[in-house]
Amino acid sequence: MAALSGFTAAETGLATEELEIELLLEALFQRYGFDFRAYDRQAIRRRLYRLMRKRGLATVSSLQDRVLHEPGVSAALLRVLSVAPAALFDDPEQARQLRIVLASCLRASAVPKIWLAEFGGAEEVWSLAIMLAEEQLHTRTEIYATAANEQVLAEAQHAAIPLARMAQCKDNYRASGGTGNLDDYFEVDGGHAVLAAHLRSRINWAQYNLVTDASFNEFQLIVCRRALPDFGPVLRRRVLRLFHDSLSRFGVLGIDREFDQGDAFGANYQAVFPHQGWYKRVA
């Protein structure tokens, strides 16, 4: 049959799996309202394999059956398809660049607003809040941390860091350019550390879907570095247009990589750092 059809068994299996993935993503959208259909297919496939291995499933179709009929599996799938949680100051070089951006782009605004779109867990947001405090900007800056997944939001709002992990967090903090005492930004509750209340009060947590929702405010800084790599070309263009519509003139956009040649809005931005994904909107 393979010889007659012109396809090898491997090609036929890959085509079948591709159809299974399409059906699963369509089921997620129709049943639960989460639209991953325009995400990069290889990124989706890697995450599906991870969940399938964990649950001992051989095919994507068997996963779809569990998602539709077994309580808890849909939540597990949505979590694995969402942005992976980040650790506090887990990317010191990016944090150093962000410190420079905060100092240069927010001081002129009376009440600056920052949008962390599809944030990578509470600790990414907390890292930003700490840097704002060190730049003396926290009392007048609002952080909007958004995610499409309600579970991700709930985890972030109730997050805490085990005290055993704080030593590593302090190493990352110092490597990111932090010069203070990291403990000063936290409250200890039992065996865990939680961001201080006066810094948490500047964070607005909200459910927001980059795939379907419209612009909801004007921001002086928009950061989306962890989710964009998962987006396919069409969705990426859609999201970059959304960010353009939401960013004030002379505001800064932080994305995962440089603009592609021919990006519709690339001419409206000026690079902040060479060969990095930080841009100031100039038009």
TrEMBL record:
Annotated PROSITE patterns: CHER (PS50123)
Gene Ontology MF terms: S-adenosylmethionine-dependent methyltransferase activity
Gene3D superfamilies referenced in this protein's UniProt entry, alphabetically: Vaccinia Virus protein VP39 (3.40.50.150)
CheR-type methyltransferase domain: residues covered: 9-253
Pfam families: CheR, CheR_N
Domain of life: Bacteria
Protein name, UniProt field: Chemotaxis protein
Organism: Massilia polaris
